[in-house]
Amino acid sequence: YKRQGINAEYGIPNHRNFDLVNTHTHTHHRQRVMDVVKAVKDYVTKMVDTVKGMKVLLLDGETMGIVSMCFSQTDILQHEVYLFERLDAAAREQMLHVNAVVFVRPTEDNVQHLRKELHEPKYGGYHIFFSNICNNSLLNDLAEADEHELVCEVQEYFGDYFAVSPHAFTLNSRELFMSTRQQGWSAHKRRCLDGLFSLLLSLRRRPTLRHVAGSELAEQIAVDLTRRIDEHSALFDFRQKGAPPMLLILDRKDDPVTPMLQQWTYQAMVHELIGIDNNRVDLRGAPGVRKEMEQVVLSAESDSFFRDNALVNFGDLGVNIKALVDSFNMSSLSSKQLSSIEDIKNFINEFPAFRKKSGSVGKHVAVVGEMSRKIDQRCLFAVSELEQELANKSDHSVAKSNVIEFIEKDNIHMQDKIRLATLYALRYESSSSNATSRLIEALANAGADREQIRTMSYMIEYAGSARRSGDLFGNKTLFSMAKKSFKRGLGGTTNVYTEHTPLLLETLEAVQKGRLRENTHPFAYGGGVSADAVPKELFIFIVGGYTYEELLYVEKFSEQTGLKVVLGGSCVHNSHSFVKAVHQARS
Question: Is the pTM of this model over 0.90?
Answer without folding.
Answer: no
